[in-house]
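Input chain follows. Return structure tokens only.
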Amino acid sequence: MPAAIEFAAYNSLLKGSQFVSKQIIGTDGSNPNSKDIYIYKHITADGKDCYAIFNATSQMTASFDLGVDSAKVYDEYGNETTINAYDGYITLNVTTAPTYVIASDLKEEVTMREAPLFDITREVKSTVDDMFSFEVTKDTDLSVDVSVECSANTEVAEKHPFVYNSSVIDMITYNDIQDVDNYKFYMGENIEQINVKLMSGGKIYYNAPVTVKYIDSLDSDMRIMPYRNGRWQAILSIKNNKRTSPLSGKIDISTGDSEEITNLLSGQKSTIRFNIPEEIRASSYTVDATIYLDDGSVVSDSADTTFISVERAYTPPVIDGELSSGEWQNSGTPISFDSVSQYVRLNPTNSPEWHGEEDLSGEAYLMYDDDYLYLAATVQDDVHCGTDEQDRVWAMDSIQFGVAESQTKTSNYTEIGIALGDDGESKIAKYADANQNDPFFDKATMNIFDDTTEIKATRNGTGTVYELRIPWTELTVSGQKPADYLIFSALINENDGKGRTAFMQWASGIGQGKNPELFAKIPFNN
């Protein structure tokens, strides 16, 4: 519907008009704050000048010398306001949609003031039954009155006088947020706008909206983290978003625990920890929290865990292809590759099916310190193939893993492959580098890695052991260990001598396509 209204406004204002010229302010670098303002001049059907003005990137306020004392200004929906010039400049709300300015004898060449004469806070966040504030600023000594056109859900509480050309307007919100018939929603649910006019002597010098985004009374963030001796906790962090009142209520956790919230003050944060029963060690587990607040609102949150963590390596492992007794005992619960649901056949017709753990299975272990990530894996594979005509590590029996900056499709990530060649050589390849953001460049040589990178793979019977030490400088953009989570995916490639036919994966996102959104978050036990 808004697009139809915009189109109707365009037709109403410019039907039968004649295009005259186009001007761009900003691309020549003379005003770095302009961000490319486009100005299209037309002659309307009744002979008046019309500027269609918009910004290519964002919403902003700008003051223009248009050569007139006042003009009729229309927003993209055709709402009309007469805006007056002050000190030769008309101040406009410029957005990515056109603002139409109509007057007689508009200047041929528009100039823009370095800073706008007037401006306001463009967006605020608030809870219902609360208060919010926005700021009005002016770059002039002109005395102005602030007029606020409120929605059905807001009311002006206090207009503070200008101090050093800045004024703050306090607003009250109510709880009519679902009353959509009387509530000026736009751009989606829980978003409205109020309109602000700056006036002096009965003349309007500025007219623009303030967007109000309604948020929950309480912010919550749930994490599941290890804390000691193999125990895990659900950690719920909460914050009172209200400006004017404390919050109380009750937290119910799906583990059967509960906790009271008592007089959480405005802006105050609190962290509550819930122990997860020791007997729960499922391959994945979800903890749900439901927060019932005394103001009648309900907030829900949840977190998942695989009970796998990256433990600190107080004694770094020796990278020798042997998992010595006690060397990896501090690594926590291993990543397991042992289920048919993890087995992916590259060709459902010709690729062999999985025949159990002796066919292909394994475990991987992760540890860290401030400088390195350590990985070890034990793989059972009845037939080992460590050759490929193009020496591609991923095409051999091998381990592949990815480390991403964030759990998003567009995240930078690093992808590594490790293999044991039939000649006994340990091989390593990098297929994506977070610092280059260039997926799948195949450089299967050791010399692309930092000198402190170490790998060793060994074979004993039907088992293969892989060990790796790799510096964080090879894995992350910052070159440092991530703060809370390793965003990770891993797989074991299967080649029984006829090429890569399948793989067994933990998480996903690297086997048949590259998508860090499918990686899993493994917490660091700090």
